[in-house]
Task: structure prediction
Amino acid sequence: MKPINQTEPPITSTELTKPAHHQAGMRPRWLAVAAIVIIGVIYAALPPNLRVIEPNWLLLVIEAVLILPILLIYRRLSHTTIRLFVLILLGVITLALAAGITLLVVTLPKNSQGLILLRSAVLLWIFNVLVFALWYFEIDGGGPYQRHLSKHQAADFMFPQQADGNTTGWAPLFIDYLFLAFTGSTALSPADTFPLTRKAKTLMMIEAIFSMAIIVLLAARAVNILTQ
Result:
């Protein structure tokens, strides 16, 4: 029989909070996962001459291979492993986006079908917004898990709610980064959220370059063809 004064080892605060922190870091990713699926669908809808990954559904398969382990066994994965999977996926879809824009520019002089050009430009522009929304969501402060641990203080981006040190505990969600990417692709500059680090500024410059290539060059070419 166990002595009366013998007690079980105390549970540390780290053991109590780690699962909660891990789950809190995963919860904001659901909208990001939806954006990844939409990216795969958009890529499948692109004309064959703008795709470097064939068949057209292969990008969706790659996304599933990299995302499903995170969704199904995330409790067993470390934060570093989850980020590695996510960053590899972001690298793949960014290369697919860059290749699609490059191919559209290269084939532009030979393409006289205005409606196809307009459709391709719209799809690539949406692709661009979603890809960089995912980048912003993942790099800001080291990702949602690290932002949760730091109580959502401004790190790579500073939202208006964080200007006073985020005394209210406001937490940015994927929709906030989607708005940031949307304004970056339309106004070609930040709106109310400012990049604070070099990597954030670099990503915003790349997004603006892609957007200019799509909107200014490609869409304008398509409109010219339609008016002839």
About this structure: Confidence is low (pLDDT under 50) at residues 1-18. The first strand starts at residue 157 and ends at 158. The chain has one domain: 27-227.
